[in-house]
Write a structure and sequence with these properties.
The complex is a heterodimer of chains A (250) and B (259). With 250 residues, chain A is an alpha/beta fold. Helix content of chain A is 37%, strand content 25%. In chain A, the strands form two sheets. A six-stranded mixed beta sheet of chain A has the order 6-7-8-3-9-10, with helices on both faces. Chain A has a four-stranded antiparallel beta sheet with strand order 2-1-4-5, covered by helices on one side. In chain A, helix 6 (179-194) links the parallel strand 7 and strand 8. Chain B is an all-alpha fold. The chains are: A alpha/beta (250), B mainly alpha (259).
């Protein structure tokens, strides 16, 4: 796909990203550009640093070195207002992290109302619309502990969407789900993708990568070893470690 | 046999009359109960406020720290950036708080109380000194209870909240503290119960608490049995009441949990 590489189109840009935890260097120099509307899928063995990479993008992890820009704004600079940045980036976690002491509706409306980006009525309306979209409006006044894993994750996605983010980050969203619920979550993610959302997804779901991804990245030991369009990536892997990895998971 | 039983009952009746009725000595016990309750409630108020503030300060530092005082000060002097000054100050405050916790949990309450009463506040009302002394001591224990309760909240909750754009303060207030509450309450309840019993040493600084009341009456009646057993029973009653309340609250909080 031909992309105009003007700065307007760059959703995320990463230069020389390094991250160490005490003495252990997890990210060893990542350079990457993610354009608006791209669906970048990151795969790799555990310990490769893919989650750490994702978490650096919204500064849940503070990079040890390197620079990151989100929509042209350098987030690794001291002037960056982290909270404002995170409003523009939604994150979905492996273990959902819904607020157990709040109802589903409150989970979704809490942030928009508190950050004053919507009035309570607007937030309520938006939450109901989002719940309707995932067919869970009847669960609005229940608590997270009454839901199944798949339902919780879909609510978590919707909660992130309620903030009208420009980028959605997914950290192994289906890894903690029973197999029969993986599909419903992936379906929702597919819908999001089709609506044009810029997405960065760390996952083991190769089918999703193939169907929805515009680009697939392979990470191992803190670096990106190979990236390509899904078709090429899975059909003609070049890096030997990628070939090895794919032979084990496909 | 029956005669000795009758004699024993009479002796007991005598002792009770002597302990409570003669000279209206029951009033000493009433003062004792009143003071014990006053000290407990007062010390609790001081201790909880102090403990929560200390705990939140320490949790914040534990999350973002640790810092080296000299390095941070050096950086501040070199660059003039406020954040380095803040780091240096944070380190200072937290070293001080660490010392507070170590000293006040590492020395006997009775010694602390006597220092407050005889060294520091020699001219203040003893009841107030007792409240301050027990309050500061309790504060140290409450601080650790609250800190543990906060840190027991799943880190994912903080991450999810911050990812939505909520500030650290908002996250603490809306997400973490409400959940920490459930962790804190059982240990806090135990601390309250311990405090009620701890106040029994207030007599060391001439406060007429319940235990001191028993001593005062014992000195006058030369009978130890009735006053001491009575006082023990009152303490027990208080503890049982508090335990019942604690269990009720814990049960009420559990209704939300998944079976």
């Amino acid at each position: 796909m031909q992309m105009q590489k003007t700065s307007n189109d760059k959703a995320i840009e990463v230069q020389g990203l390094r991250k160490s935890f005490d003495d252990h260097e997890v990210l060893r120099g990542i350079d990457e550009t993610i354009l608006r509307g791209e669906k970048v899928v990151v795969i790799g063995p555990s310990g490769s640093g893919k989650s750490t990479f994702l978490r650096c993008l919204n500064l849940l992890e503070k990079p040890t070195a390197g620079r990151i820009w989100v929509h042209g704004e350098e987030i690794t600079s001291r002037k960056c207002k982290v909270d404002d940045l995170r409003q523009k980036m939604g994150m979905v976690f492996q273990h959902f992290n819904l607020f157990p002491h709040k109802t589903i509706l409150d989970n979704i409306t809490l942030a928009p109302v508190y950050k004053k980006i919507m009035t309570p009525e607007q937030a309520r309306q938006k939450a109901c619309d989002l719940l309707k979209r995932i067919g869970m409006l009847d669960k609005a006044d229940t608590y997270p502990n009454m839901l199944s894993g798949g339902q919780k994750q879909r609510v978590a996605i919707v909660r992130a969407l309620a903030m009208n983010p420009e980028v959605m980050l997914f950290d192994e969203p289906t890894s903690a789900l029973d197999p029969e619920m993986v599909g419903e979550v992936l379906e929702l993610m597919k819908e999001l993708a089709n609506d044009g959302m810029t997405m960065v997804v760390v996952t083991h779901e190769m089918g999703f990568a193939r169907e929805v991804g515009t680009r697939v990245l392979f990470m191992d030991e803190g670096v990106i070893l190979e990236q390509n369009s899904p078709a090429e990536f899975f059909a003609h892997p070049k890096n030997p470690r990628l070939c090895d990895f794919l032979s084990k998971v496909l | 046999m029956l005669n000795s039983l009758l004699a024993a009952c009479n002796a007991f009746k005598e002792a009770v009359t002597s302990t409570f009725i003669v000279d209206n000595r029951y009033q000493i016990f009433l003062t004792g109960i009143q003071n014990t309750l006053l000290i407990t409630v007062g010390a609790l108020a001081v201790g909880v406020v102090l403990g929560v503030l200390v705990a939140i300060t320490r949790v914040y530092y534990l999350q973002y720290g640790p810092y080296s005082f000299w390095k941070s000060l050096g950086r501040f002097l070199k660059t003039g950036r406020i954040e380095y000054l803040s780091q240096a100050l944070q380190k200072l405050v937290n070293v001080f708080l660490g010392a507070y916790l170590t000293v006040f949990r590492g020395t006997p309450v009775v010694v602390q109380l006597m220092i407050w009463a005889f060294v520091v506040f020699s001219r203040t009302n003893e009841l107030v000194v007792a409240i301050i002394g027990f309050g500061i001591n309790s504060g140290a224990y409450v601080a650790e209870i609250v800190r543990a309760g906060i840190m027991a909240v799943d880190k994912g909750q903080t991450e999810a909240s911050r990812s939505l754009g909520l500030s650290g303060l908002a996250t603490m207030r809306l997400i973490v503290l409400p959940q920490a509450f459930k962790n804190i309450l059982p240990a806090l309840g135990n601390e309250i119960i311990a405090l009620v019993k701890e106040t029994s040493i207030a007599g060391y600084i001439a406060v007429t608490d319940l235990t001191k009341a028993a001593s005062l009456v014992r000195a006058r009646t030369f009978d130890a049995f009735v006053p001491l057993l009575f006082v023990a029973a009152v303490y027990l009653l208080m503890v049982l009441l508090l335990t019942a309340v604690q269990q009720k609250i814990e049960k009420a909080m559990r209704t939300g949990d998944r079976r």
